[in-house]
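Exam prep: given the inputs below (a chain plus fe (iii) ion), describe the expected output before reading on.
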Amino acid sequence: MLDISIIRCLSDNYSYLIRDNATNLVGVVDPSEFNPVNLEISKTYKKLDFILNTHHHHDHVGGNIDLKKKYNSKVICSSYDEGRIPGLDIKKSDGDQFSLGETEFKIMHIPGHTLGHIAFYSQKNKVIFTGDTLFSLGCGRIFEGTFEQMFKSLEKIKSLPKNTMMYCGHEYTKNNGQFCTSIDEENRKLQNRIKNADDKIKNNLPTIPITLGEELETNIFLRCEDKKIKNKLKMNNASKLEVFTKLRNLKDQF
Ligand code: ZN
Ligand code: FE
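Solution:
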């Protein structure tokens, strides 16, 4: 079993403290900054064996060096990000495994937001850490890759079991939900999700994790073949990639 605690960092980032409870090995996914992560460690496990980075952006690696110094942790990231992830120790490529004790993670290379972006997926625990690629009701901006790369990366995540719990890098659900409803106006499941998310935000709770199954029904970036969405965009004969490209461009201006 894997224990996961959500740590708020910076203005809207999430870092995740994870522990394999069979072996008591502890990791952190995307430590944005030292202080909040260190505080959570001091209240819980008092150690940190591994730092897992999804990509090189500062709001995902900002705590690497100070945490590593204090806890003697090993940094795991994409082999593509050599030279741009501070403190790198262990390089991983698509399809590789990373074991946190008895918890096996599969490394999924999901380029688009950045070229080296990876996700950590545990089939047994039904969890995936998606960084800035798949968000609750959204997807990341395309900074380094192509629209096609991002689209294919999302397709890869879509193929995982629907009961997989998705943990992403930012609390963007509210704004993402507003964009989704502007396009997918009649989706009742989407409206319910937004209502639930609003309640959580009002109570100062995170809107994640969320299952991939719920995302598939409500996140328009995963629904590029939906007839109503295509109709709304006046793209009835367009390919899924063309619809995705249009949605991503519209979101950039939203
Ligand atoms: Zn990023
Ligand atoms: Fe980010």
